[in-house]
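Appendix B, Record 12. Input sequence as logged:
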Amino acid sequence: MLVAPTNALRQKILALMVLRVVLALAFLGITTWFQIKVYSFAHLNFYPLYGIVVTVGLLTILYALALKKVENQSLFAYLQVTVDIALVTVIVYVTGGTESYLHTLYPLSILGASTLLSKRGGLYAASLASIAYGVLIDMDFYGMLPQRFKVIHAIPVQGWEEVFTTVATNILAFFTVAYLTGYLAEKTARVEKELEEKEIDFEALEQLNRHIVENISSGIMTLDEKQRITSFNREAENVTGYALKDVYYRPVEGIFPGMTDGPLSSGTRVEKRFRRRDGNEIYLGFSVSQGQGADSSSIIIFQDLTHLKAMEEQLRRDEKLKALGELSVGIAHEIRNPLASISGSIQLLKDDLSLQGEDMRLMDIVLRETERLNLLITDYLLFARPAREKRETVDLSSVVNGTVTLFRNSPEGASMAVRANIRDGILVKGDERQLGQVFWNLFLNAAHAMAGGGSLSVSSRVDWGSGPDAVRRPFAVVEVADTGKGMDTELLGRIFDPFFSTKDFGTGLGLSIVHRIIESHGGTITVKSAVGSGTVFTIRIPVQTQGALN
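Logged structural output:
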């Protein structure tokens, strides 16, 4: 037998309590009205009716109070069914006995029992009702019950055969109702259980789907037909910096500008720059999946391509450097040898000739430009092939501090405020001269960006690798920040390119040399900048000894 869960059974008992009061009063009122139409008021005794109404009300109150405390709900339901059958029997007795119309209340009680307790409860109610009804009719037919408790004092007009037929017909009806309602109740309970199991399966699938979506390594969002964001997974929040509550039901254009510039159709691949909530600019790649038919919603999957774009840029730059490196050494030597001869010859002529005025100025220009060409070749060789023969333990803190001191006392650094916060004892493996050149070039670059004066900040610390693929080892981190005019996105992508310069003078190799030297030391250099907000260069070089962490 299928038994309803405790909570469901309790709800059914509550419903039956309310229905009991409504039906009892309704049937009593209807029966009284019919019998008033037939009999005069002189033959009526309303006190039993009042007693039944009060009894039903008191029982309902007691049931309601006991329902919260009773643990065995099934036994409590059987008790109510038993009391209901007894009440119906009393109602049939006081409303006429063999002449009563209210024997139809028995099937209602049986129906309630089947609903509460399934087929077994229905058969129990049918059996109890058959016994009670049969005994009542027999006793009333043979005058064994007092007549003063009846609403109507009527003399039975039915014969023994009619009474027997009535009792037998009603008993058959009781069991028929019990069987049919019990069968339907069990089938209903079985269907409800199957639906509940399926619902549980759906909930499990939904939870699994939600878990997969929340833990996927790509950002996922869905759009409704009006291009409003309706979902945002965890990775989407991590990538953009926006929480679901910040973007829910907002137009996608408000969060991802330019997303709807073109039609959103399945298979569309879009790559756009995006400014995170914290202001940092990243590069995102979007894939669109459009709903079919009447479904005009969209699923958009996106990834942060910033790191990939940086790798592509690095590969592009390395290809350029490789091509240039293959030509650098030979060309530089071929130029340097005749250049040295020219420079020496000009110097001898200057010493031997008595030059004055314009001739002397022209001779000085030749010598100065010859020296400039020699420096250009030196820088070019350093850029193309940084020296690797000198690798020793270097106190990076001392290198940075020394370069800062030199820059403060140089003409370029005289017009700006230079602040340094350098941690002592950071040791790296490298070339002291080359590392000094790195910071000198960065300081000069900052000075050129702050022609009208400004502030240069230099700081250092020891950090550890981060990210899922990072090697857990210490890195020396040096940041060089200026308050200059800054750079736009296009310039940021080219500042490390050889021979690229925004100045009217110089070789355009300064930052390229910086990049090559840091790369040859096993480190990295990154830059962040925005127009009008200054520039920050961040250098990371592996720490040489554990002593640097003390």
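DSSP finds 14 helices and twelve strands in the chain.
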